[in-house]
Write a structure and sequence with these properties.
4-stranded parallel sheet, Rossmann fold, 315 residues, 6-stranded mixed sheet, alpha/beta, homodimer, 2 domains, 15% strand
């Protein structure tokens, strides 16, 4: 039995998350609206704590632990935003965080995680090594594993970004998110289907990491195989819980080229003067590529994060 | 007789500017506050139309023209943000804009100005060629010259940024701006001295273009000579009107190194996830360099603009 959050779980998550996370602003750009012919609203999770929406799910998961559970700490494996999110959320709760990181993780990410006082265990950069190492850490410490997306509380937490955007801007014809593991997409789908039953929920995915696209359209789970994309937050395979929600609530998943991800990212940097990471640019890339029709529509887009190495920009 | 705006001129300017410009948000960063030991408030004029505060002054100057004057259009020389600001403001009023640009201006700036339907006259990249060419354009067209800073209405317009920031965040111990020609600094000084008589007004300037620093401390006007700095918005010499206001109302002017301008810019990009141009980073550079003491103080900083060539970043 897979437990799936309902909208009331997202409301509960929001009560917790509000105390720790930013209610990020929603930006618009008349220049980009003119280019695409619709009215776009960008929920700026690049301004969220740790620079990504991942903080929402981590806060909800960690503050939903009982006192007894919490004492043992939390553990996860991640090379990216989820690692920093778990580390900071655990610090805020005052409990230990054990993070398994591939030894080739960018220095900037290692420093961020270490800066939140997490205990880091390095491993070889393969999924198998990450999982084995995490299992050992959990066995040794008794810590609670916080999965980055295939987790009831994480999904409920991620759903609060769309909830805030809808509460602020009221009506949308469609809401678009990127999809990697599916935590944000599934949480967004639950919020949106309750608050705006007629709003379309669309996901955009890099063509080079298109397991969600293929799984959704074939209606059966197809794992990611050698994914390759500049959108490093979207390399993961869909989670089981996430896939179940996506099948029942998402209207469409489309893919985009690497070239358009970079073009969309650059457009946001130049016109909106905000820093987003490549994963954030995937929905706008789908609009530029005309895979999603936004003409004369009100469209919400979640900009998922802003963590990027300034010394390795694609332009 | 040099006419100097009073606070009531800034109020009038604000009534006009509100209709066309964004009331830009004020951002904070707990990460940067921890580093500097004070509470910093950043007025984000990088999100202003045309990507810089210059739009405020241009709107006020152009919408303060009488119908008869306006018909003849406006003219200016600029290679940067003022050119785009005048071009867009003139377009909004429906009158011609004649912009003299050095022929080595960045392509991106030429395109921006042309995109607002301004008529561009190119000239050699010297101040003399710019002034001679502008004089010819004004003679030929009868257009009204809009000086980028030594102009009553421009100064009043630039003063609205500090006015908005003070109205929103109420109290400050000091407000810091960069200084180039002095339009923003003088407008800020007028707003601030009226609204917060005890607030210090401090300017920061690149050491490589320190004419305002030297003029302020010697109390006599010293023109800029071969200025050199990455902060390309601050290469100009102080205007006469601006210097008069600065001498009477500014508390201090300090200089910063190129290295610290780049470090401050990078800090804002990485921690705040917003794009600012080097000129915007000069006040924070002065804080990092400990030229301005912000410990335990509430400090307002105007981030002046976000126009930068992404293919020529200093990191």
């Amino acid at each position: 039995m897979l437990f799936i959050p309902t909208y009331s779980d997202i409301e509960k998550a929001h009560d917790i998350i509000k105390k720790y996370a930013h209610c990020t602003p929603v930006f618009t750009s008349s220049a980009i609206d003119t280019i695409v012919g619709g009215r776009l609203f960008f929920k700026c999770e690049n301004f969220q704590k740790v620079g990504a929406f991942k903080f929402r799910g981590a806060i909800n998961a960690i503050f939903s632990l009982s006192e007894t559970e919490a004492k043992k700490g939390v553990a996860t494996h991640s090379s990216g935003n989820h690692a920093a999110a778990v580390a900071l959320a655990a610090k805020l709760r005052g409990i230990p965080a054990h993070i398994v990181m591939p030894d080739n993780s960018p220095e900037i990410k290692k420093r961020a995680v270490a800066g939140y006082n997490a205990s880091i265990t390095f491993c070889a950069p393969t999924l198998q090594a990450r999982e084995t190492t995490l299992a050992k850490v959990v066995e040794r410490t008794g810590a609670n594993e916080v999965h980055p997306y295939n987790n009831f509380y994480v999904i409920a937490g991620q759903g609060t970004a769309a909830k805030e955007m809808i509460e602020e801007k009221k009506d949308f014809d469609s809401i678009i998110t990127p999809v990697g593991g599916g935590g944000l997409l599934s949480g967004t789908a639950i919020s949106t289907k309750t608050l705006l039953p007629n709003c379309k929920i669309i996901a955009a995915e890099p063509a080079g990491a298109d397991d969600a696209f293929r799984s959704f359209h074939s209606k059966k789970f197809i794992a990611s195989k050698n994914p390759k994309t500049i959108a490093d937050g979207l390399l993961t395979s869909l989670g089981e819980r996430n896939f179940k929600i996506i099948l029942s609530s998402v209207d469409n998943i489309v893919t985009v080229s690497e070239e358009n991800i970079v073009a969309a990212m650059r457009l946001v940097w130049e016109r909106m003067k905000i820093i987003i990471e490549p994963s954030s640019a995937v929905p706008l890339a789908a609009i530029l590529e005309k895979k999603i029709d936004v003409r004369n529509k009100r469209v919400g887009i979640i900009l998922t994060g802003g963590n990027i190495d300034l010394e390795r920009l694609p332009f």
